[in-house]
Amino acid sequence: MKEVTFLLHTQQPILATSLQGDPNSDVSYPYIPGSMIRGVLIGRYLNHLKKHHGLQEADDILDIQRFPKVSRLFFDDEKTRYLNAYPADTNQKRTLPVPRSWYKDKGVEFSDKTDEDVYDFSKIPVDEREENLSPKLLKEDFCTVEDNDVLFYRVKRRINIHNQRDRKKGRGTEGNGAIFCYDAIDAKQTFQAVVLCDSEEDKGTIESLLQSKDIWLGGSQSAGYGHTIIELVTNKKVPNESDWYEVGLPPQKRIERNENLTITLLSDTIVRNDCGQVVADPEVLRHLLSKLLAVDIQFKKIKYKNESGEEKEIEDGIYASSLIVGGFNRKWGLPLPQTPAFAAGSVFVFNKVDLDLPRLKALEEQGIGERRVDGFGRIVVNWLDDEQTEYNARLAQSQTRAVNTTKPLASESLKIAQDIANRIVRKRLDELLLKQVSSIELLKKDKISNSQLSRLMIVTRKALSDLDIENEKTESERKTVTQIAEPVRDLLHNLPSNARKQFESIRLSTGERLDEKIQNWLDFPDSWLSNSWRSDPQTKDLVVAGKPTVTIAGVPQDFDNYVALEYSLRLIMAIAKKTMKEKHND
User: Fold this and answer.
1) Residues pairing with 14 in the sheet
2) From CA 111, how far away is CA 549, in angstroms rounded?
3) Which residues share a beta bridge with 149?
4) 3-state SS class at 25
């Protein structure tokens, strides 16, 4: 197996659209898909054929007699694979997806200053996990691992607002002027890509296609997206070592050191069952792996006793999630079929078996499942040492950004940029509010009367009205957020004994009292918002100097305590209204 390694330095935002976000926005993957790189190189190779071999539009490029390399270079996933370009680390090496068997303690936030503990549950039996630990799945995307030290890498993103326009008039019209936004990979970042092929001849061809340094990737290239610079990397190999390994260590050494057989997916993986249907079913994956490795493998199981004392067995070797993947065929001008797939980072633990090393090496080289030519189906066996169950993790320091040499915005443009950024911040906060309301579950709802909930809503609505009035005043004339929220506090402090008992009896699913939780939301209105912002996949990368921030045209916009109080009051009203509705349905 031969590899071509190169760096992609983004000069403009990259829009590699994924199947997420609302209908009025396109949200990019946090990496550059292998299919995108493959598509650009196909275009370059076709230009080469037109120039030197007289290729015509009507010619069949898959004609092996005339163009013997085309199928082998771009369409045969057993000959060539275009791996996803993941963020490069500080040493310009390719990072890898974070395993989905890694957990942190609830409330832990990663920074580049201090180390935090990360636990690999695939190596810790259930009965040996810390009792006082409140595990939470990691939200980080990419990492590097060295011994017990982990560095997480976050991809910087940019949100731009666009206005649909009429192609003839060059501007928006009444029937063709919708507002939409792009959530793209930001410029001035470096990604490392790899192309795997079977021969030196194919390697030389691919390297020749990468000689032109400027390349355009992704969508909306005419709108200022996609410009990237290529930098070929010369790999200095160890003498007598001809193979390249995605995790750096040969499979033979990885097999010898572990007691279990652990499969980690290094990219999204598409598999079909015996009926030909695309499914994200661990049992289908197990069956396919058994077939490719020519040995029957079984998921790791643990024994436990149920309430009646009867001993049972359950599978404890699956740490996976699924997603929907698609794509776009620029030649057809049509989207590819949307199919379910296992998400990158999924981990599957099997009982240890004797493996045939050549088969294992071929499996890691070729990958598994469908669309392997586009970088899907990358797997690794026993990536991490079984003895390492905990890691010291921190965020990698941010990559150096280019100096901004653009002229300052004029006052009118500055105001527009601030308004757009403020609308995006509000939109994100609205989404976080809905998620917060959905996640809160009240216990013993029947203990509180609708009249008490209505009373709480009336006082909270009055505080919101007062807040609107204060926002119209100058900063020096405004009341403080503490003064604005005082009527709600007074209501909870001065309740009659019967009403007080009702509020005290209501508990959240976390065990907290409802009245105490409301007090916390009023005393620290920005706490839950900031925590939700940093942990949500859509907003976790929109943080500047530790504060939730959206930047438009170089103009940063965050939210102050008055906005935080507004959303805390809206949260209180929404919880009260939700409780009344659920009581009625019950």
Assistant:
1) 185
2) 17
3) 146, 392
4) strand
Q: Report the distance separating Cα 277 and Cα 307, nearest Å.
A: 39
Annotation: CATH topology of 2-95+160-241 = Alpha-Beta Plaits (3.30.70)
pLDDT average per 10 residues of sequence, the chain (586 residues): 92 87 77 93 89 80 82 90 93 92 90 90 81 88 91 89 68 64 89 92 92 89 88 65 77 85 94 92 93 91 68 78 86 84 94 90 92 94 88 78 47 77 88 88 83 90 89 82 89 87 84 86 87 84 80 82 91 88 70
Segments making up each domain of the chain, as ranges: 2-95+160-241, 259-381, 411-585
Q: Are 392 and 113 in contact (CB under 8 A)?
A: no
Q: What is the dihedral of CA 10, 13, 17, 21, to 10 degrees?
A: 140
Pick the CATH number of 259-381 from 3.40.50.1370, 3.40.50.720, 1.10.730.10, 2.60.40.4350: 2.60.40.4350
pTM: 0.69
Residue 452 backbone dihedrals phi, psi, to 5 degrees: -70, -40
- The answer to whether 342 and 280 have CB atoms below 8 angstroms apart is yes
Three-class secondary structure of residue 325 per DSSP? strand
